[in-house]
Design brief:
The complex is a heterodimer of chains A (about 190) and B (about 160). Chain A is an alpha/beta fold and about 190 residues long. Chain A is built from eight helices and eight strands, in the order H-E-H-E-H-E-H-H-E-E-E-H-E-H-E-H. Chain A has a six-stranded parallel beta sheet, sandwiched between helices. In chain A, strands 5-6 form a two-stranded antiparallel ribbon. Chain B has about 160 residues and is of the alpha/beta class. The relative contact order of chain B is 0.20. Classes of the chains: A alpha/beta (about 190), B alpha/beta (about 160).
Chain lengths: ~190, ~160
């Protein structure tokens, strides 16, 4: 049975809580529904919406974080994405960027391709991050815990990893109505 | 043979200031020089490296990614569904293992098909030679600026010297 018992928050609701706490920080959002939902909830020029290259969101965020050490970089990721780019947990932990916050919405399915199960129910992703050596690692279910921990990570030195258990529910959302080169140009200007 | 120190300096002189990648023996000297100069951020996979290059580019850096041509296979999806379509240029410095069929078996198919794969993905490429080095780098910088997509320089064995044998 999915999701984990006690999980009642949808990804969109959890993502809205995170986006509400952000202002001008660079945010990298993984491909699939997460980017489409973020675009609908709060479109900002500081958002980099991905439409492909699954698994690479934290790599992009790492490149930004290393080049802009004075900006907190936030990555909004999913469980399938983390599993695909798992090596990057090690790269991030080895480099210890203080300005790196990796938020993972874990719904235990590949939601954008028809809810096939991932293995995140069997393999605890936050434990992988902890073993790799992220400075702060938390796992939350409730919205108030999410808000508390994310606020804390915005203040603390990273790298931080916040796993948020969410339901399979996906919002009825359109595609991101921006051409990829425009997303790049807009993001570059916004984080200058 | 070009000294790796001179080669890295030439790359820096035309503006490259962020280097990442996954090692290969042909690239060993270049990577050692980059590490001495504290310019190299090691990646664990080539798709991670091109993702980091995309992020660094958007944050104002001029990135280069070093990889063996096997890594072209690993990173091809990220290259075409991120760097190419989002117009995030980087230099791909790719070692040409399996050139003319003279290498270990695992390198032969990629060695034979690499330029066709790059052509099919519409990634501009040139094979570096000692005689045309300055011109090759000039072409790289121009293509990078003009097309704003990844540009590949292919490096055969024995062109740039390794300072760590």
């Amino acid at each position: 049975m999915r999701p984990e018992e006690g999980t009642i928050q949808s990804r969109a609701r959890a993502m809205a809580a995170v986006l509400e706490l952000l202002t001008d920080q660079p945010v990298i959002i993984c491909n699939g529904f997460p980017s489409r939902e973020a675009y609908k909830i709060a479109d900002r020029p500081t958002h980099f919406y991905m439409i492909g290259s699954m698994g690479v969101a934290p790599s992009i965020g790492l490149g930004v974080a290393l080049a802009k050490p004075d900006k907190k970089v936030v990555i909004l990721d999913g469980d399938g994405n983390v599993l695909m780019g798992m090596g990057t947990l090690a790269t991030v932990a080895a480099l210890q960027p203080k300005n790196f916050i990796h938020v993972v919405f874990d719904n235990e399915v590949y939601g954008s391709t028809g809810n096939q199960p991932t293995i995140s129910r069997l393999v605890r992703l936050e434990q992988m991050a902890k073993a790799a050596g992220y400075a702060n690692v938390e796992r939350v279910i409730e919205r108030e815990d999410l808000v508390y921990e994310f606020k804390d990570m915005l203040k603390k030195d990273g790298p931080s990893f916040l796993l948020v258990k969410v339901t399979e529910q996906a919002e009825d959302v359109d595609r991101v109505m921006l051409e990829p080169p425009e997303i790049t140009r807009r993001f570059m200007k916004a984080i200058e | 043979m070009v000294e790796s120190d001179d080669f890295v300096q030439a790359l820096q002189d035309i503006g490259f200031d962020f280097f990442t990648g996954v090692p290969d023996s042909i690239l060993g000297g270049i990577i050692a020089t980059l590490m001495e100069r504290r310019l190299y951020t090691p990646a664990v996979r080539e798709d991670e490296a091109v993702g980091m290059a995309a992020g660094a580019f958007m944050a104002g850096k001029v990135p280069a990614v070093l990889m063996q041509n096997s890594g072209l296979g690993t990173s091809l999806n990220a290259l075409i569904s991120l760097n190419v379509i989002y117009q995030q240029p980087c230099l791909l410095l790719i070692s040409w293992r399996g050139f003319q069929g003279k290498d270990a078996p695992e390198h032969l198919v990629m060695g034979d098909s690499m330029t066709q794969i790059l052509d099919a993905a519409r990634i501009p490429h040139r094979t570096l030679s000692e005689q045309s080095l300055i011109e090759d780098l000039k072409w790289t910088a121009q293509t990078f600026m003009k097309q704003r997509i990844p540009v590949a320089l292919l490096l055969k064995k024995g062109i740039v010297k390794g300072n760590h044998p």
